[in-house]
C-alpha cells in the first residue's frame, strides 16, 4: 500500500504518507506554554502511527491573542523539547511545529492589514520567522512549517487582495511572492540547508476576487524553486468574507471561505483533491518533485490510497478524521479499517475552536478531553437477539429511524448507513441516541437503511436488519402531505 510507504523529505524520513495538519486545540493557556494536555494530544497521534504530526499554529511574536501556543522567545524551548521527546518516544512519527505571524484584530471588527505595515515592521517579521524556526530546531523538532495560509500575515502578502504598492506590490505575482522569498531566505540562513522546512499555503482563496489554481500553481512553483521540503495545501479561511459578531474580534472561518476551509457534511468527500492534483501536476511538469499534501474531507483509506496511486498527491492530510480517530493509520496497518471511527464532518470541533473552547470530537465518549485508547480486546457491540432492531417511518418529507440500543462494551454511538436505489451503502450520520431523522430524501427513489453501533475503540456491531422504503413522488395537487407510513 502506497499509503504505508515511507517518504524522505530532506533529512527526515516520514514513516508513512499520513499527515495530521495543524489543528488548534485550545488546550494551551493564554501564556502559550506547552502543557500536559498538549503533550497528551500529540502523543496520541504518535501512538496511532501518524506519519507526520504538525503541531498547531504557534505564534512567533508576542502579540496578544486567546489561548494559543507560542515559540516567540527562548523560554518556550524547554516545553517544546519535552513535547518532541515524548512524541519520539511513542513511535516513529515525525513532528514539526506550524509557526505563524498574525496581525491585530479588535472587538470592533477593525483589523490591521499588511498595507499598514512599515518596512521596518516587515523586516522584524522576517527576523521573527527566522528566530522561531531556529528555536524549533533547537527544541529538537524534525522540521518546521511556515504558516502561509488563511487570513494571516504571510498569506495576506500572497493574496490578490494585497494592497501594497512597494516592492511587495499586490498587483504583480512577483510582488506578492516577495515576502515569502525573504522569509524563506532568512529561515534557511538560520536553520541551514538540511533542516526540513515545509510551507502551508492556499490552493484557492475562495473569496470574491481572490486567487485560484492558476495562481496557486505558480506560487507552489516558487516554493519549490526556493527549496521548500513539502507543500501543504489548504483552502479559504479568510477575513475578507468573515462575519463580524458584535463585540467579538473577526474569526476568519465564519464566511463562505471558512466553509471551504473545513468543508462540513453538505460537501461531498474529497472536494479539494483536484487542487492538489493540479498543483502537483504543474510543478512536476517543471521538474520539481517536492511532496504535495492534499487535504479536505479525506477519511476513507481506499480514497486516500487512490489519490496516491493516481499521482494526485504525495501525502494525505486529515485533520478532523484524525481528531476523531488518531489510530486511523494503525487500524489500516492492522487491516482493521472497519474499526475506524469515521468523522461525520459535523464541525463541532470547528465551533469549539471558534469559541475558544477546548477542541474535542463529538464522536468521543461523553466528557472525554482526549481520544479514547484503542482496545481491540474488548467485546464487539451486539444487538439484542431475536428481534428486528431497526424500524423506519416516513413523515413530512423525512424518514424517521428508531432502533433498540446495542449491548456490550461501552457503546459510544451509532453509524447510520443509507443506500439509494440499490446502490452502495454509505454513512449518512453518526448519532449518540438510537434515533435519526433523514431530511435529505427524495420522493421517487428507494432507500435502504441499516445501523451499526460502535464502542470507544471503534469496534462496530454487525449491521442491524435492513429497512427499505420506496418513497412515492409527492402529490403536488393535494393540500396536505401524504399519509405517514411505517416500516420495519
Ligand atoms: C479545530 C480546527 C483547528 C484548526 N487549526 C488550524 C491551524 O492551526 N492551522 C492550519 O493551518 N489549519 C488549521 N485547521 C485546518 C485543518 O488543518 C484542515 O486544513 C481542515 O480541517 C480541512 O481538513 P479536514 O477535512 O481533513 O479536516 C484547523 C481545523 C480545525 C477543524
SSE blueprint:
Layout: E1 7-9, E2 12-14, E3 18-20, H1 36-47, E4 52-59, E5 69-70, H2 77-90, E6 94-100, H3 119-138, E7 144-148, H4 153-158, H5 173-191, E8 197-204, H6 213-225, E9 230-235, H7 256-261, H8 273-285, E10 292-295, H9 301-309, E11 315-317, H10 320-324, H11 328-333, H12 348-354, E12 390-395, E13 398-403, E14 411-420, E15 426-431, E16 435-438, E17 446-455, E18 467-470, E19 485-487
Parallel strand pairs: 3-4, 3-11, 4-5, 4-6, 6-7, 7-8, 8-9, 9-10, 10-11
Antiparallel strand pairs: 1-2, 12-13, 12-19, 13-16, 14-15, 14-17, 17-18
Bound molecules: flavin mononucleotide.
Flavin mononucleotide is lined by residues 21-24, 56-57, 98, 147, 149, 200, 234, 261-262, 295-298, 318-321, 349-350, 353, 359.
Could you please describe the fold and organization of this structure?
The protein has 488 residues and is α/β, with parallel strands linked by helices. The chain folds into 2 domains: 2-354, Aldolase class I (TIM Barrel, Alpha-Beta Barrel); 390-487, Sandwich (Immunoglobulin-like), CATH 2.60.40.10. It is built from 12 helices and 19 strands. The protein has helices spanning 36-47, 77-90, 119-138, 153-158, 173-191, 213-225, 256-261, 273-285, 301-309, 320-324, 328-333, 348-354; strands at residues 7-9, 12-14, 18-20, 52-59, 69-70, 94-100, 144-148, 197-204, 230-235, 292-295, 315-317, 390-395, 398-403, 411-420, 426-431, 435-438, 446-455, 467-470, 485-487. The strands form 4 sheets. The protein has an 8-stranded parallel beta barrel, surrounded by 7 helices. Strands 16-13-12-19 form a 4-stranded antiparallel sheet, with no helix packed on it. It has a 4-stranded antiparallel sheet with strand order 15-14-17-18, with no helix packed on it. Strand 12 and strand 13 form a beta hairpin. The two termini are 41 Å apart. Residues 21-24, 56-57, 98, 147, 149, 200, 234, 261-262, 295-298, 318-321, 349-350, 353, 359 line the site of flavin mononucleotide.
Amino acid at each position: 500500500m502506497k499509503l504505508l510507504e515511507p517518504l524522505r523529505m530532506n533529512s527526515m524520513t516520514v514513516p508513512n504518507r499520513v499527515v495530521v495538519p495543524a489543528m488548534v486545540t485550545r488546550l494551551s493557556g493564554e501564556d502559550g506554554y506547552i502543557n500536559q494536555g498538549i503533550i497528551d494530544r500529540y502523543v496520541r497521534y504518535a501512538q496511532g502511527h501518524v506519519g507526520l504530526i504538525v503541531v498547531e499554529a504557534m505564534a512567533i511574536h508576542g502579540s496578544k491573542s486567546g489561548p494559543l501556543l507560542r515559540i516567540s522567545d527562548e523560554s518556550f524551548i524547554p516545553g517544546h523539547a519535552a513535547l518532541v521527546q515524548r512524541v519520539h518516544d511513542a513511535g516513529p512519527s515525525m513532528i514539526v511545529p506550524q509557526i505563524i505571524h498574525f496581525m491585530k484584530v479588535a472587538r470592533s471588527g477593525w483589523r490591521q492589514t499588511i498595507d499598514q505595515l512599515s518596512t521596518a515592521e516587515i523586516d522584524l517579521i522576517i527576523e521573527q520567522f527566522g528566530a522561531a524556526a531556529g528555536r524549533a530546531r533547537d527544541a529538537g523538532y524534525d522540521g518546521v512549517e511556515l504558516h502561509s495560509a488563511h487570513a494571516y500575515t504571510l498569506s495576506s502578502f500572497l493574496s490578490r487582495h494585497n494592497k501594497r504598492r512597494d516592492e511587495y506590490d499586490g498587483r504583480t505575482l512577483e510582488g506578492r511572492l516577495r515576502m515569502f522569498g525573504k522569509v524563506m531566505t532568512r529561515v534557511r540562513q538560520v536553520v541551514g540547508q538540511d533542516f526540513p522546512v515545509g510551507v502551508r499555503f492556499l490552493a484557492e482563496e475562495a473569496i470574491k476576487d481572490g486567487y485560484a489554481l492558476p495562481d496557486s500553481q505558480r506560487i507552489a512553483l516558487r516554493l519549490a524553486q526556493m527549496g521548500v521540503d513539502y507543500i501543504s495545501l489548504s483552502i479559504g479561511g479568510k477575513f475578507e468574507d468573515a462575519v463580524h459578531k458584535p463585540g467579538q474580534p473577526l474569526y476568519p472561518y465564519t464566511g463562505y471561505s471558512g466553509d471551504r476551509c473545513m468543508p462540513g457534511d453538505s460537501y461531498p468527500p474529497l472536494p479539494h483533491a483536484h487542487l492538489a492534483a493540479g498543483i502537483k501536476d504543474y510543478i512536476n511538469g517543471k521538474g520539481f518533485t517536492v511532496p504535495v499534501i492534499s487535504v479536505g474531507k479525506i477519511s476513507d483509506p481506499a480514497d486516500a490510497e487512490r489519490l496516491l496511486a493516481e499521482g494526485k498527491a504525495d501525502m494525505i492530510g486529515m485533520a478532523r478524521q484524525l481528531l476523531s480517530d488518531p489510530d486511523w493509520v494503525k487500524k489500516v496497518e492492522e487491516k482493521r479499517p472497519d474499526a475506524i471511527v469515521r468523522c461525520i464532518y459535523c464541525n463541532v470541533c470547528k465551533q469549539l475552536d471558534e469559541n475558544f473552547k477546548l477542541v474535542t470530537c463529538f464522536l468521543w465518549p461523553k466528557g472525554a478531553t482526549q481520544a479514547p485508547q484503542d482496545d481491540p480486546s474488548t467485546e464487539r457491540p451486539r444487538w439484542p437477539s431475536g428481534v428486528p432492531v431497526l424500524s423506519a417511518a416516513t413523515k413530512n418529507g423525512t424518514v424517521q429511524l428508531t432502533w433498540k440500543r446495542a449491548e456490550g462494551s461501552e457503546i459510544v454511538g451509532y453509524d447510520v448507513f443509507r443506500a439509494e436505489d440499490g446502490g452502495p451503502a454509505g454513512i449518512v450520520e453518526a448519532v449518540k441516541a438510537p434515533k435519526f431523522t433523514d431530511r435529505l430524501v427524495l420522493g421517487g427513489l428507494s432507500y435502504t437503511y441499516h445501523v451499526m453501533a460502535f464502542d470507544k475503540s471503534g469496534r462496530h456491531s454487525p449491521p442491524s436488519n435492513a429497512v427499505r422504503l420506496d418513497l412515492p413522488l409527492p402529490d403536488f395537487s393535494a393540500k396536505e402531505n401524504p399519509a405517514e407510513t411505517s416500516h420495519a
